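Data availability (excerpt). The following record was deposited with the supplementary files.
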Amino acid sequence: MSSITELIHSIPVDPLTGAISVPIYQTSTFVQDAPGVNKGYDYSRSNNPTRAVLEQLIAKLEKGSTGLAFASGLAAIDCVIKLLKTGDEIVAVDDIYGGAYRLFNAVYEQFGIKVHYVDTSNTEKVFEAITPKTKLIWLETPTNPTLKISDIAAIAKIAKANNALLCVDNTFATPALQTPLTLGADIVVHSATKYLGGHSDLIAGLLVTKNPELGAKLKFYQNACGNILGPFDSWLTIRGIETLHLRIRQHCSTALEVAKWLQQHPLVDQVYYPGLKTHANHDIAIKQAKGFGGIISFSLKNDTEAAALELVKHTELFKLAESLGGIKSLISHPANMTHKSIPAEKRRANGVVDSLLRLSIGLEEAEDLIEDLEQAFEKTRNTKTTSKYEKATV
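Predicted structure:
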């Protein structure tokens, strides 16, 4: 059975009514037959039938044992860090999402959890960063926003050899392209706000574990801390997942066309997209994923913030906004938006230069998006931001 067919038929028909769409159980509590005797549900913070369908669905898609749904991607990340204690250490990807960096450094560092940031696309650097106190290795692959690719299977072996957990943020790839648990990871995390929801109309986070005992521990923290996803947003996420594979196919196809076009543009310096043969980790991307995703980042030959901000003023189809993974194409300036919480020197050292722009490719036709970028480049070209920018003009 194909993955798409399996996905569609993994979403159950309601056994009570035959409803083909999962019902929204918009209730806080459930009537019990006697104290502690119920139909599997007592209070919606602990469990809810709509959320349960979503959690079972994402566990199946990621080929794991336990799925959990949270109020946001950061809430899901927060739950994972609660597995650690004072004195424990994390080895984390250096090109990390700004919100995760803020959570690690501004929240958990004060509780004595230390984070070492390394270029995880270089497996040797991960090995060198491990200490006896390392309890968690944190990957994004592809990374946000420079789209580095890390070898999940190789790093999983390092984690196991050092009794550390491996958690992979699979937001950019999604289970339609990549299943980290089958490559040796222990936990997968998603910002379901992005591709899984797919329509820019919800905030949600998901976790999946390979091991049921680990899943039960995270389930305890989910209930104890109360950071759960409500039934309506659970239903929206299920509805988004129903079309995930079809949307991802289009995102990938269009992104590759746009990336190739950007690569030859005279005003563009670097293009970051794993589907390009020039990408440093192209071979690893081919090995562990079925596609390259819908995110492209690129820097300008005029590496200034002013040049980047001038360009984003002129796009029409690409809307300037936070987030990604929806049906409409978005453009963002990471240094001023998603990664503003990371110190400028650290951002730049990790490739998030002042002129870096990130594109989230939607479901529009590739030629329309290219035309939009071309007219934005042309208007920016005529602005003549600096003499260096003029030199890049042909």
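Summary of structural features: Residues 386-394 have pLDDT under 50 and may be disordered.
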